[in-house]
Amino acid sequence: MAQVAEPSSFPEAAQHHVWVKAMVEEHSAIMTNDVWEVVLRPKDKSVVGSRWIYKIKYATNESVEKYKARFVAKGTPYWNLSETQTTLIWSLHHYQGCGRQCI
After folding, report:
1. CB under 8 Å to 1, separation ≥6 — which residues?
2. What predicted TM-score, i.e. pTM, was given to this entire model?
3. Distance (Å, rounded) from C-alpha 19 to C-alpha 9?
4. Which of 37, 61, 64, 68 is 20 to 30 A distant from 31 in Cα terms?
């Protein structure tokens, strides 16, 4: 299989099976871990946008180890830490004092 580049947008990623699989895995992890719940947006709160970030993880021999997709809130920092650390994405539960994700 030819190596696929890191996409810069969802439409670009959706054209490649490896990125679709990575997004499905991320979505499954979000749902399994109860990362957020869908609620009515309070009238005085703004909607928090979201986006996908795509990264290729390489093995020590420079072969592709994993295609990784992360779903994050727009405007929040994203740190790509080592495998021994946790990938840190700001929690949507407390963004803008909403107490949970505002939609």
Report:
1. none
2. 0.66
3. 11
4. 64
